[in-house]
Amino acid sequence: MQRLLSGTAQMGLALLPAQVAAFEAYTEELLAWNERFNLTAVTDPEQVEIRHYLDSLSLLPALAALEGVSTTAFLNRGLRVVDVGAGAGLPGLALRIVWPRIRLCLIESTGKKVRFMEHVAARLSLTDVQMVQGRAEELALREPHRATYDLVLARAVAALPTLVEYLLPLARRGGRVVAYKGSAAPEEILAAEHGISMLGGRLRKLIPVEVPGLAETRVLVVIDKVAQTPEGYPRGQGLPRKRPLGCAADEGWAEEAAV
Question: Of the chain's two ends, which shows fewer C-beta atoms within 10 Å, N or C?
Answer without folding.
Answer: C
